[in-house]
């Protein structure tokens, strides 16, 4: 067993407590539980307003470890794809206002009614390419999050770290370091090439590390994620690979759990996150 992680590196992805708390409560909760990082979702930001939210986050001494999320590039027609681009440009501006470490890209799946997976992947590549200059000039890093293949149809047709890194090389190979990846343990723990691909990414491309656990059995594709330590992912091993590759950033807890953690008192959830970060990560 490796040494426990630095408790200062714990971050809260606000999806973890999204059912019971608004953004102000989340910010207060992080401060109370001495969680230094926060990663808000845009729906919660919209309730407060981005400038107000940025101020509240700063006033509480928190670091925005990521903004969730941009992406969703494929569309049924040109208009739909342009709407997605416009939305991503706004998300980049919001990430800049928040001084977020990155804007997380969940890239999108097949357009409704389509079976053209290679085509969807081209739309993703083109979409990221279309917003990259804006991100670069805004000083916002874009983090492609490969999602588990079970989400390929409806959420993300980028499913492995290798695929995400290929996109980084193709679109951002000049070394500007605007484009990188999120390693979310839930999505990539099963991948036989995970260690190699984390090494390949290196500290320049590793922009965020999301943690939770894979429950056996998993009752729901989206909202049955486990607290660290309750499932089968060897989180200390993956953290060791990340650190070996030079990653020094936050460990962001992201637990979508309709049957368990969303039902509980968020203060209990945050207290549990702090303990499990030390004992299971
Ligand atoms: Zn994630």
Short description:
By secondary structure, the protein is α/β, with parallel strands linked by helices.
List keywords for this structure.
13% strand; binds zinc ion; 281 residues; single chain; 10 helices; nine-stranded parallel beta sheet; 9 strands; 43% helix; alpha/beta; globular
Describe the fold and architecture.
With 281 residues, the chain is an alpha/beta fold. The protein is built from 10 helices and 9 strands. Strands 3-2-1-9-8-7-6-5-4 form a 9-stranded parallel beta sheet. The structure holds zinc ion.
SSE diagram, text form:
Layout (H helix, E strand, L loop, with lengths): L9 E4 L9 H10 L4 E3 L2 H7 L1 H10 L3 E2 L2 E5 L6 H21 L4 E4 L10 H22 L3 E3 L16 H11 L7 E6 H4 L5 H12 E6 L23 H10 L6 E3 L12 H15 L1
Parallel strand pairs: 1-2, 1-9, 2-3, 4-5, 5-6, 6-7, 7-8, 8-9
Helix pairs in contact: 4-5, 6-8, 8-9
The chain binds zinc ion.
Instruction: Enumerate how many helices there are, as a single number.
Output: 10
Got a strand count?
9
Order of helices and strands: EHEHHEEHEHEHEHHEHEH
- Shape verdict: globular
Q: Which value, in Å, is the CA radius of gyration?
A: 18 Å
Heteromolecules bound? zinc ion
Query: What is the helical fraction, as a range of percent?
Result: 40-55%
Strand content: 5-15%
- Please outline the major beta sheet: 9 strands, parallel
Oligomer: single chain
Unreliable spans are: none
> Strand order within the widest sheet?
3-2-1-9-8-7-6-5-4
Structural class: alpha/beta
End-to-end Cα distance, whole Å, is 10 Å
Task: Calculate the mean pLDDT score and round it.
Answer: 97
